[in-house]
Design a protein that fits this description.
The chain is an alpha+beta fold and 226 residues long. Helices cover 39% and strands 17% of the residues. Among the domains are: 4-63, Orthogonal Bundle (Arc Repressor Mutant, subunit A); 145-221, SH3 type barrels (Roll), CATH 2.30.30. The chain contains 8 helices and 8 strands; from the N terminus they run H-H-H-E-E-H-H-H-E-E-H-E-E-E-H-E. Helix 4 (65-87) packs across helix 5 (97-103). The longest helix has 23 residues, at 65-87. It starts with a helix and ends in a 5-residue tail after the last strand. The model has no long low-confidence stretch (mean pLDDT 91).
């Protein structure tokens, strides 16, 4: 039986799989969820018994097709609720993550489908992340790159964030960065992998971005208006 806890574990594995060529380590799951390693190991055995993961000690964890479907359903609900909270109720993008974490566990297919239809079947959520269809496929291909990989002279339009935690989003707000912001990369600093950019149309002519920021911003190439 799916519970809030098992859904959180399956979603965490799905998100961690995106950065892993092989199985996801239990230590990385523990770090993401703030759980004790022993608790994670115990949960992996339970998920394996239910046929939702493939797990062997020291070899990592992989989702089965059933486990992936459950995880994608949770991600779909989360991103639809974030879109509703921002677009319909007027919440800021840095106020909705924790609320959506609660709402994503309302497992009603009819409610989810009606919410999706009410919103006009959006392709992405307020943080630029693609929203899955009911069958687990994405409505839009994401041809984007991390800002940390951009070279000097590139004009980059911010289209997504890799960290949707409230404190990170508030930091972006303080820098004048959001979805749709265009920045021109002016200088790279190998010492700490930080970057100086010009925010096109922004109040400040120059902005210094830490490596944590550049490694959590997705961009596509853009031609600035000014």
């Amino acid at each position: 039986m799916l519970t809030e806890s098992t859904e959180n574990y399956l979603k965490a594995i799905l998100q961690l799989e995106a950065d892993k060529a092989d199985g996801v380590s239990t230590s990385s799951i523990a770090e993401r969820l703030g759980a004790q390693p022993a608790s994670v190991t115990g949960m992996m055995h339970k998920l394996k018994e239910r046929g939702w993961v493939k797990y062997e000690r020291y070899k990592g964890v992989d989702l089965t097709e059933t486990g992936r479907r459950h995880a994608m359903e949770t991600v779909r609900r989360h991103r639809l609720w974030e879109t509703f909270l921002v677009g319909t109720l007027g919440f800021a993008w840095d106020e909705v993550h924790d609320l959506a974490e609660q709402l994503e566990h309302v497992r009603s297919t009819d409610l989810t489908d009606q919410l999706d239809a009410f919103l006009g079947h959006p392709q992405t959520d307020p943080h630029g992340d693609p929203i899955p269809n009911a069958d687990g496929t994405f409505r839009t291909s994401v041809g984007r790159a991390l800002l940390s990989d951009a070279q000097v002279g590139i004009c980059a339009k911010i289209v997504g964030v890799g960290d949707s935690q409230d404190d990170f989003l508030r930091h972006l707000n303080s820098l004048g960065l959001g979805l749709g912001t265009v920045v021109e990369v002016k200088e790279l600093f190998p010492f700490d992998r930080s970057m100086a950019v010009h925010i096109v149309g922004g109040v400040e002519a120059r902005c210094h971005l830490s490596s944590r920021v550049t490694q959590n911003l997705w961009w596509v190439e853009a031609v600035p208006d000014a």
